[in-house]
Amino acid sequence: MVSPFTWQGFGQWMFTASAFAFLLLVGWRWDRRRRDRSGAGRAEITAFALTAAWSLIVAGAGHVTLVGQLFETFRSLAWLGLTLVLFTRDGRHASVGPIRPVMAALVFVELLQLLLMMMQLRYGQHPGAQAMIFQISVMFRLLVATGALVLVHNLYAGAMAQQRVALRWTCAALAMIWGYDLNLYTIAYLARTMPLELAALRGLAQIAAAGLLVIGAVRGRSALRFSPSRAVAFQSLSLLVIGGYMIVMVGAAQSLAWLGGNASQLAQLGFVFVSSVLIV
C-alpha cells in the first residue's frame, strides 16, 4: 500500500479500515439473525456487506474505476433498500404516499449508472465523451444523495418521540453517508474531476457512520424496536433546505476557485467538514 502520509495512501488506509468496520457489523448482525428474522435484519446485513466490499475495492482500485463505480451503485441501492424497510417497519409506507414513488425514482436514477458504465466501456477512449459521462454520472449521484437525505429526514422527523430515540443513531449514520456524498459530488461536478483530498476523506466518513451504528447497537436502541407511528405528511421542507444548501455550495465553490492553489484545497476541506457536521 502507498504511504499513509499522502492523500492516496491515507484514502487506502481509511477505506481498508472502513471495510473492516463494516465486516464487524456484518458479523454482529449475523449473530443476531436467529432472534430477529425480519426484513430489516436482512437489509442491514446486505447494506453492511456491500459497503465493506465497496470499501475494499476502492482501497485497491480507486473511486473512478468501473468496478468501483459498480459496487458503489450496489452499496447505494442497499442503503436505499434499508431506508425503505425502516419505513415499512414503522408503518408509514402505507400512510405516506410519496415514499414509494420517490424511492422508485431514486432506484431508477441509480440504475442509470449501469448504462453510463457501458457507455464508458464503449466510448471511454474519447476524452470528450469520457468527460461528459463523468459529469452525467456525478449529476446522478447528486440526485440520489439529495433524495436519500430527504427520505432520511422524513424517516426521523415523522417518527414519534419514543421512536426517534430508536432511530437516532441509524438516521445519523445514513445522514453521514449521504451528506458526505452530497458534498463530494457537488465539488466534483463543479471541478469536473474527483477531488483527491475529499475522496480520501470519504473513507473516514464511512468509519464514522459505522461508529454511529455501533453506538446504537451498544445502547440497545436499534431501529428495529419501534411500533407503528402516527400517520404523517411527507415533509418536502427538507428538499427546499437541501436545494438552498446546494446553491450556497455553488457560490462557495466558485469563490474557492478564485483562491487557487493550496488555499483553495484547505478551504474546500474546511467547508466540507463544517457542512457535513451541519447536515448530521
Detailed description of the structure:
The chain is mainly α. Helices cover 80% and strands 0% of the residues. It has 9 helices and no strands. Helix 2 (39-61) packs antiparallel against helix 3. The longest helix is centred in the middle third of the chain and has 31 residues, at 127-157.
Helix count equals: 9
Percent helix, as a range, is over 70%
How many strands appear in the DSSP assignment?
0
Cα-atom Rg, whole angstroms? 19 Å
Please outline what is shown here.
This protein has helices at residues 7-31, 39-61, 66-90, 99-123, 127-157, 161-191, 196-218, 237-259, 261-279. The protein is mostly helical and 280 residues long.
Task: Outline the secondary-structure elements.
Layout: H1 7-31, H2 39-61, H3 66-90, H4 99-123, H5 127-157, H6 161-191, H7 196-218, H8 237-259, H9 261-279
Helix pairs in contact: 1-2, 1-7, 2-3, 3-4, 3-5, 4-5, 5-6, 5-8, 6-7, 6-8, 6-9, 8-9
Q: Which short descriptors sum up this protein?
A:
280 residues
